[in-house]
Structures are given as structure tokens and as C-alpha cells.
User: What shape does this take?
Amino acid sequence: MWGSFFRMGFRVLMRQKNYFLLNLAGLTIGIVAFVFIYLYVENALYYDRSWKNYPHIYRVNETYSTGGKEEKMALTPYLLADTLKNNFPEILQSTRLFFTDPSDKNDVSSVNYRGKMYDIPNLTIGDARVFKVFNYRFTEGNPDSCLLNPNSMVISTTMKQKIFGNKPALGKKLKTSIRAYTVSGVFDNKNRPSHLEFDAIISFSSLDKKEQKQLNTNWFWMNCYTYVELADTVNVREFIQRANYFAHMAIGKFVKKQKIKINGYMHLAFQPIQDIHFSQGLLYDSHSNINMTYLYIFVIVALFILLMASINYINFATARSLKRVREIGVRKVMGVFRKQLMLQYISESLIITFTAFILSLSLVELLMPVFNSLVNRQITLVDSLFTGSGLVFGMILIIFMLLLALFSGSFPAFVLSSLQPVEVLGGRGLIFRGRKKHSFTAAGLRKFLVVIQYLVAIGVIISTLVIFAQIHYVKNRPLGFDKKDVVVINSPADTSFRGRASAFVAALKSDTAIEQVATASSLPGYLTEKILVRTSDSSAGHLQTLDGFFVGYHYFNLLKIPLAKGEYFSSAKKNDSVEHFIINEAAVRFLRLEHPLGSYLHTPYTKKGIIIGVVKNFNFSSLHQQIEPLIFMLKPQFVQYVVVRINPYERKEALAHIRNVWKKYNKGYTMYYTFLDQKLDTLYRSDQKMLSLFFYFSLFVIFISALGLFGLSSFLIEQRSKEISIRKVLGGSEKQIVLMLVKEYVVLVLVAGLLILPVVYFFIGKWLQSFAYHINMSLCYFVGGIVLVLLVAFVTVLLKALFMVRKRPVEALKYE
Amino acid sequence: MIETKQLKKVFKSADIETVALAGIDLKVEEADFVSVMGPSGCGKTTLLNLLGMIDVASSGSYRFMGKEVYNLNEKQITRLRKENIGFVFQNFNLIEELSIWENIELPLIYQGIKKSERKRRVREVIDRLEITHRKDLLPVQLSGGQQQRVAVARAIVTRPRLLLADEPTGNLDSMHGEEVMNILDELNKEGMTIVMVTHSHHDASYSRRIVHLFDGQIINENLNRV
Assistant: This one.
């Protein structure tokens, strides 16, 4: 019996090809969007949950304050891991990884193997216990001993594949410009979503002994991520208190020994490792962290997309089935049972839903690489959908499809098959007539559903417009210096470069395409140092924290940072007995200096210094943040970056010249460089990502809601085909009738727009507040969003209305 | 007023051709009252639709008030129709969402007539057809006879020169049918040209001329009660 139902179903669908395709497209797109969002959310929730003892692994974060300003960061001093482990037996294991910034690399991140250079995207330094806490599967080497020896390097399977192909890597030498490392292990990082994103680790013992000793004694040198694994019997809250008390005492001792006066505090926070992916607001935290709110928004959007697709599907199915009342009438006269009618409809529905299901999974698989590059993940459909919790999701999806088929099939069957045969055959081709009330509520419900869809569509589109405008704004807002046409070259890590730096700089200047060259170890958009200073007259002599820039001569001229008072650094006036400092206006206010010029500042580790200049405030970090107090110290010998202003009309020549000079002075070193404005743009990477996600949401939502409106308007307009004919016969022009038909839907969209306004205003307003500098939410974004949706809706309905109105009136009247 | 020559209408579906009208030559003079009779499927309604310009012939010529209709474009045809032709249908074809007044007013709106003038003219016809007291009701609230009065009112409110009626009494009992026929008779006496399709010999007896159709052809024309 089912066979005949499916045969009939296929015939019906083939006859109504347009309906079949539209319905299939809507449902498929809905499922595709839903599955993608599910995969993303599932992946995010799985972050750092693959470690064998993850519920008991914590990262130690730090909250500290000096001089009243509190800051939170993910970094802690190197010595913390050992100190805690040695004093608290409940810590089963502790380990640490050095902070590295993968977006700011020098030649050390490229290794030479048999004469070929390979770039390691994310290289870090770790102690020997890293793999005791993070139990990666090793394909080569021993995880327990691989980081014990100096100059050992453990690489990921991806790196191994890139460098060695299918040959074994263990024991092979990888050379950087400063030393050779021995590959001591290969770990598999596939299907291990984690905030740890390193591609290779160098053993801590590779650092020189002097540096190791410093690291092991200094509480104020924060450069490591510290992880601890606690015994599962530990009362965590109580442990944290004890650990903090211990750290407090230890720091007190350290401060006393160093003879530092400081008014502040440092507090350790133990963050469960699976929470890290969602943590926000910590300095030096992982770039891949996401905001939990976004995740909620994604889930809501996903559910809405699926709901919209389902509503449209049911709407469509019902509307279409009205065309078949005659067929039903005939079948009823022949004595069909309602159950058989239902089965007939359900089998048609099953054909569509399962075609859509298979089609959408194929599409997901096909689009996976695009999706992965968009969200910067390595998700595979097979791993996520057919294993573990994915299997459950797969089952749920299948059950959902079954239910959808069942419901969308039985609804029209139920309504239509409940009609008396004479009602359907009696010439009244249209249902619900003579049952005015029923028809009104059915239409009302459909209109309500359409308003809901447009609510979502308008909301998403307005959000997209505002996000776009804000990102455009932050990328183009004047920052108080000139970021254009500045090339930043990362110096070789080799200390021997210092000896030839000035010759390198002089050689760079020799071409007319180069306008200016300066050296520095700090730049806007890069990470800054934190400097402790006190003023001469601060009564208690307490230290306060400022952001610090170490720069060489010509720095201010090159970046065009304007002076408010005093002068720039100059070699002519250099007095070796005191340091020269320049501060920004924010620092003048922060340190409460009435006459900054000539004032002295003291730091714990350097000579006292005199303020010789005050520069105007400029944005040196992302526009999410206000301009912080900043101090410039003259350090011509620190040449982490060579900064070059090039002639914008001779870009090509300038870059060629820079490359040539690099080759001449730094033979064998890989040159890493970037344009300063591009580097600044990366500060908004996560915002940019959100924009692209919202852009795709918009496409999905517009498409699905347009489809929904098309379905609804088709249904309602077709129901009115007779009225349209009468109006035509009475002399109504096409224009008049089409306008009459379209007007109603325009009103629906406007209502949806008005309803969603306050919601969007609230949420997008909140997002904008995350920027210290942001656009004002003007009415034009709202109007723009509504007009856009209106246009799509207008065209959608217009198509159907025109089609109906163009029909000759006799066609609708002839059956009378 | 109307002159058709070899008017043909063929319906095509898949590979079957159905000839609805097989060459009609018909002349209707001003102020005439013509009944079209014949068995079901003989092409009566098709002929009326062609005369009313809501359908197009497959071939042949149709002159309306001296103009060859098939030489005009869509817009010109619409204008010719809405200024000169009124329709009355068997099942009334009132718009259910509009009140009686609004139904009658509709063709005037489509003719672009000013509001005050519309008001005057609608009042004139509803007074004449004695439906004034029901002007604010919806069509479903009226009996069949009353609905057909409204339909007639709507057809004549534009003061057409030609009234096309497709079985105007087909859905009415004899008393109400009689009323509608009396109205049509009156209108004809005032000079309105009427073409009416009917099955009823009684109704046909009101007309001046009867045209008999069979299988899409005129087989017989006879004058009635001259």
C-alpha cells in the first residue's frame, strides 16, 4: 500500500515542480543553516573537555592593582607553577606555557630542514610537564620525557606532515637562525578543540641559564600561562583562599627584599579549563575565545531558522493542497477513508523532507571547508554527527524530519478530508467559504507567522548594518597618528642583529621610495609593556602602573604623533646621567602632574628620569578601550621592530628595496613584516568575524522569510483569484489591483519592523557599548533595514500578484 | 452597436482542441434586447465573454461601436469595456469583503470619478432598485434576489450602453427572477442595449430577438414580440 502512496506522491510532486522545488529549497536551506550553527555551538561547548581530567584542571589567572587601577590577565609569573606545586600537595600536577603572540613573529618561528624553510604558525615554550596535564596522543616520542632536554622541540602531526611527509620525524634536527632543535615528539591535535593552539613547543630548558634564574625568582614578571590539576577531593573554594594567602605572603617577602614600595594587591583566580573558551576581558587571553552571548544568539537564530523553514513548509503544503480539494472530493465520493487520505499526504511530505535531509547534509559536507575557514575551526561532519553526542543530534534531526513530514502531511489531510464531499464538489472550489470565521483565523494565524519571520529578518539585518558601520568606523577613525604607509619589520631574534642594526637602518634609508626609518620595541596595535613608576612628590612614594613604549629616535616624527608640550627625544640633548621620558596627556592627568615638563619619575629597575615632552593622546590599542596613561622611554638599543614609512606612490619599489637590504644584512633569516594599518585592523578580528556571521545569517533569514511570504501570499492571493477577476471585469486596472494586493503585506512588514525596533536597539546598543569609541545609533540603520526587507517583500508579493492579475478574468470565472 | 464576423474560439488543452464557437456572425443594434439560448456547452457563455471583452477570440472580427476591437491594445480594450459595458452574472459575483454600497461604488472608483459624483450616482441606482435600506450590509446578509439587484445596480451605475447578463435568474426563485427581468425590461425600454444568455423561455420572452446556438454555431434567429 505504501508503494502506491509513494508512486502517487512522486507523480503529484513532478506535476507541481515549482512547488516541489521551492519547498525543497526552503527546507534544505533551513536545515543547512541549522546544522552549521549546531556544529559550531557543539564544537565551542566541547572546548577543552577532551583532557582526561578536565573537570579538575584550572588555569591560574591574576587580578592585580597598583595605584587604584585594577587589571585582570591570564598571565602569571613563571615561578608560580613550581611554587604552588611544592607547597600544596593537593596539586597533582602543574605546568606552564610561555605567552607568545602568533600575530607578531620573527625569524625564530621559521625552521630550516634540509635547506627548506618552514613557518611554524604558533610556536611556544613549555616546561617538561605540559603533556602530563594535556594528554595529547603521541604518534612519535614519549610525552613524559620529550621536553626534558634543552633544545627539544615537540611538533604537531600537521607540522610533521608539512615538514617530513610520511617519514618519521623523531630525532631529526630543525634549525632556526639561532640554534638547532631536535624533534623529540609528535602530538596529534586533531579533534581536540582547545584554547591551546600551539603547533610546536620548545623545552623550557633551552632558555639560557641566566634567564631561567631570573624567571625563577621574579614575582612581577608575568609571562606564563599556569595550569594546575587538583586532586578531585579538594574543596576548591577553600584551596583558592589558602593559595591566595600563600601568594600574598610570598609576594610580600619578594617586595621587601627588592625594596619596592607599592600600594596594590595581586589576587589569583582559578578558572576551570572548560570555561576559558568563553572568558572575556582578560588581558593576554586566547584570541579564539568567544563571547557566550554570541553563542546564545546563534542558538536562537538557528532555532528560528529551523522554525521558520518548518512553518513555511507547512504553510506551503496546506496552501498547495487547497488546489486539490476537487481530487479529495472525488476520492471521498469513491469512499476513501480519512486515514488513507492522510497517509497519501504524509507520503508526499516524506518524499520532500527526506530529499531535503539528504540534500542538506550533502550541502553541509560540500560547504564545510568554506564554513571552517569562516569560523576558523576544523570541524568534520562525520566526527560531529555520527559519533558520541553527534549521533544523538543526528537521531534528533531524523526524528524531527519525521515529525515535520507527519505534521505537514496530516494537517492539510485533516482539514481537507473533514470536508463533506458535496462542499468540495459543489462548484465552490475554494475552501473555508461560508465559514467566514474559520477562514479569518486561519489567515490571521498565517499573517502572524509572517510577522514573526519578518521580525527576525529585520532584526538581523539592522544588526548587520550597524555592525558593518561600526567596523567601518573603527577602521577609519583618525587615531591621532598616521597609520598609513608604515611597514613594520620584525628584527631577527638573534642578538647579533643589534650590532648591525644601525647599518641596516642606514641602508634602508638609501632609496627614495623610503621616507623615514625608526627603531622601536613597542608600536600602536601591538602588546605593550606595563611600567611601574612613581612621581617625586607622591607622598608615600607608591608605584603606579602605566603602559610603556620603548622607542628609538625619529619614532614620533615617523608616526606623526603630535607634541602637546616640550620636545621629542633627540640624540643631541642626551644626558647619560638621567633617563628621558615622554608621556601622553592621559598620563599627565593620571599622575596628577601640574607641571609635567621637568618633573622626575622613578622606576624600580632603571635610573630616575625627567619628562621632556608630552604628546597628544592617540589610540594605541583597540577602540574598544579608552586611551590609557602611557610613558615612552628612549631605548635606541631595543630594536624589536624596524619601522619604515614608505612613499605611497612607490610601494612596490619600497618593498623590493626593503627585501634587498634584508637579504644583504640578514642572510639566512626569514623576514616577517606587516603594514601597520593591517596590523591595527586585526584588533577587530572577532568583530569582523561576527560581521561575516551576521551577514550569512541575513542571507539565510531573508531567503527563508521571502520564501515564507511567497508561500503565504500565493495562498491568499490565489484564494482571491475570483475577486481579482471581478475587479478586473468591473474595470480595475492591473496597477490598481496589484497595489491593493501588495499593500497588505507592506503593512505586515512595517508592523514587524516597529515591533523589533526596541529589541534591536537594546542588544545592538549593548554591543556598541563594548567600544569606547562608537557610532551613534541613528535612525537611518533602522530605516535602511526595514526598507531593504520591504523591498524584498514587495518584489516577492509583486511576482505572485502580477501573475494572478495578468490572467484573463474568464479563467477564474468560467467554472461558475 | 455590435457586429461580429466569423468569430471563432478554440480551447486547447494538451493535444485536444475543443471548438467552442465555430464562426459566429452576429449583429446587435443599439437599444436591442437579444437572448442567447441553447443547450449546455453550446458556447453561450463563451460568446458573452467575447462580447464583453473579458476573453479574446481565436479568430474573426468583432466591431464594437464602429471600432474593430482586436486592433486595439489591452489598455484601450479595458477602457472601451469599462466605459460602455456592464455585467450581470448568474451567481452575482459580489465581493464579499465589501458592503453593498462599496460594491456598487467600485466600478466608479475604477473609472476615476470624483467622490461627490460617485455618491450621487450610487444613491440614484440604489433608490431606483429599492435597496437603500440595505446599503451597509455585506452581500452574505442578503437573499439571492437582493444580491442580484445589487449586481444589477453595480452593472448600471456606470451608465453602460451595453449590458451583458449571463443567466441572471438562474440562481433565483421565480418571484425574484421575475423582479430582475422587470428591471432589465425597464432598462431596455430606456434605451440600454442588452445581451442575455438564458435557458429560460420565459426570460427570453422579455427580449426582442432570440439567437439559438448549437455546437458553437447560430442555427436560428427569430424576432420576439416586436
